[in-house]
Specification:
Number of strands: 7
Order of helices and strands: EHEHEHEHEHEHHEHHHHHHHHH
CATH topology of the largest domain: Zinc Finger, Delta Prime, domain 3
Number of helices: 16
CATH architecture of the largest domain: Up-down Bundle
Largest sheet: 5 strands, parallel
Number of domains: 3
Helix content: 55-70%
CATH class of the largest domain: Mainly Alpha
Radius of gyration: 23 Å
């Protein structure tokens, strides 16, 4: 690998930025979660201490070829700063500095110097054939799945309907749900997309969780009946319940650790508004780690029994809802 002393990764697409950053760090034998590494420094947010950053860049690595410094969303490329420009002009060969930014002003001297001397990667939302190559080829194809033309168009119709949600983090999340839902098959249909991709029946599933969290059997079963009336198969309802509990488990632990909604979203692949919605509804309090795990285990056990034919899907789904109401 031809290693540059510095990288600037920026653009509107968080998913691509995070993916590129992860691959780059892996190539440099760095794990971002390993905060104890002697040869890795991480700086986050617009309040980064420039003196501390300069000191880290100038510190020699300990029994290694490079010291790696990751700087995220610093806004150093948003406005003119002569001291910062001088800092990046003097990056030693023993350091590799990676900047990931949302806001970059290409007119600044810092950007111009960077683009001339280091590596710059601008990453925005994929469109057209590039989006199909990623979603159909890399994501679904990598999982051994094909998707019908109607299925792909339905997926696009749903995931691009709300411009505020039109991003690849959201799309990746929904593709992962499809891959999980269609496990053991070789193709994805439009019906599969309508059954599982967010935008269809989300409010009913969320309200069903509200009923379970409150111990309100009548409210939970009302939402379940509404889903059945909308011709949603019981096994699909079960799958969506498992998916939501997975998200509650992942995000709840991070929120408990003090992470913000946006920070938790970056770690889970969820949208920050989805995490906020669960938090405001009290789902993280109602389903702490232990209870959420037990809920997932019970749901997975019933799902397995349905798939092997030892339990009726409608009975299994109703049984699960009743068991979750009394789960501690």
């Amino acid at each position: 690998m031809d290693i540059s002393r510095a990288y600037l990764i920026f653009g509107s697409e968080d998913y691509l930025i995070n993916t590129y950053k992860k691959r780059l760090l892996e190539a440099l034998l760095i794990r971002p979660e390993d905060t104890a590494s002697m040869n890795f420094n991480r700086f986050t947010g617009p309040g980064v201490d420039l003196n501390a950053l300069t000191d880290a860049i100038g510190t020699l690595p300990f029994f290694a070829e490079h010291r790696v410094i990751l700087v995220e969303n610093s806004d150093f490329f948003k406005s003119s700063n002569d001291i910062f420009t001088k800092t990046i002009e003097n990056i030693p060969d023993t350091s590799v500095v990676i900047f990931t930014e949302k806001n970059v002003d290409k007119r600044l001297s810092a950007y111009k110097y960077f683009s001339k001397n280091y590596k710059v990667k601008e990453l925005n939302m994929l469109t057209g054939p590039d989006l199909e190559k990623w979603a159909i080829g890399e994501k679904l194809g990598g999982a051994g799945l094909r998707i019908t033309r109607d299925g792909w168009q339905t997926f696009l119709d749903i995931t691009t309907a709300d411009k505020a949600m039109n991003n690849m983090t959201y799309m990746n999340n929904e593709l992962e749900k499809l891959i999980s839902y269609c496990h053991g098959r070789d193709s994805v249909t439009a019906d599969d997309v309508r059954a599982i991709v967010s935008g269809y029946h989300d409010d009913s599933i969320f309200a069903l969780l509200d009923g379970i969290a409150a111990g309100d059997s009548a409210a939970a079963m009302k939402q379940y009946d509404m889903l059945l009336l909308a011709n949603v198969e019981p096994e699909r309802i079960l799958h969506m319940i498992i998916w939501e509990f997975d998200r509650i488990l992942m995000a709840g632990e991070l929120i408990d650790d003090g992470l913000s909604y946006s920070e938790a979203a970056r770690h889970t692949g969820m949208q920050d508004w989805q995490i906020k919605k669960h938090d405001k509804a009290g789902h993280f309090r109602s389903f702490p780690t232990g209870r959420a795990r037990r809920a997932i285990e019970k749901a997975a056990d019933i799902q397995h029994k349905i798939r092997i034919g030892s339990m009726n899907a409608k009975i299994g789904c109703e049984l699960l809802i009743n068991e979750l109401l009394t789960l501690h």
